[in-house]
Design a protein that fits this description.
- The protein is mainly α and 224 residues long.
- It is built from 12 helices and no strands.
- α3 (36-59) runs parallel beside α7 and α10 (163-181) packs antiparallel against α12 (193-223).
């Protein structure tokens, strides 16, 4: 094992830790509606499934790059996920937990991870120097890091529910970065910081307004 291999391995681990914050947030948001005993199941299986799929996607990154409008579609889907995660589906917490299953949480985690993981995939594919073994080992090590991070975020969400809007805002910023990376949009923005700020702010504001609007409608129905 040469120094180049070790350096590439460390780069992959660092990249995944740095870019794994969004994953921890979406896992926590997706699991907060579950009964306490089912949360660990959803977190562990959701994280492992997402990482396995990301390994496959990273190894095939050269083909993913050829998909037209990849970043645009991913950004829109992530905005949808961010909005959905902060909209309360029921007025009673026990009703939410009865109707929201481990499968729903795992599905949300995996889907969101695949959407958010585009930048991660490209970064790790570049750092791996074409060595699939580095991808597999590096991403596998990230599993406990993401699981631990999601539990920390979940602890705060349980005590401060308003933080769900903060988490959704972080996902919205990630979505805005994906939209900006879309070649057609990027060519128009042309590296202008003010335009990037406008896109990011618009995504965050859009998500918060949608979440507030639908939650307000449900609140009015409960009180009418």
């Amino acid at each position: 094992m040469d120094l180049g291999y070790i350096w590439s391995f460390l780069m992959i681990v660092i990249i995944d830790i740095v870019l794994g914050g969004d994953n921890a947030i979406v896992i926590a948001l997706a699991c907060r509606k579950l009964p306490y005993k089912q949360r660990n199941i959803a977190i562990i299986f959701g994280s492992i499934t997402a990482i396995v799929l990301r390994i496959i996607l990273t190894i095939g990154a050269i083909y993913v790059l050829k998909v037209p409008f990849l970043h645009l579609i991913g950004g829109i889907l992530l905005l949808y996920i961010a909005c959905k995660l902060i909209i309360q589906e029921e007025d009673n917490l026990s009703s939410i937990k009865e109707n929201y299953t481990v499968f729903h949480a795992i599905r949300t985690i995996v889907f969101a991870d695949l959407v958010m993981g585009i930048d991660n995939v490209l970064a790790i594919a570049g750092a791996s120097n074409g060595k699939p073994s580095l991808v597999i080992i590096g991403l596998s090590i990230s599993i406990p890091i993401i699981i631990w991070g999601s539990k920390v975020v979940l602890w705060f969400l349980e005590r401060y529910p308003v933080l769900s809007f903060v988490g959704a805002s972080v996902l919205s910023i990630t979505a805005s970065k994906m939209l900006i990376d879309e070649p057609a949009i990027n060519a128009y923005i042309n590296g202008r910081n003010d335009m990037e700020l406008i896109v990011s702010s618009s995504c965050v504001i859009f998500t918060i307004i949608i979440g507030y609007y639908f939650n307000n409608i449900r609140y009015r129905k409960r009180t009418s």
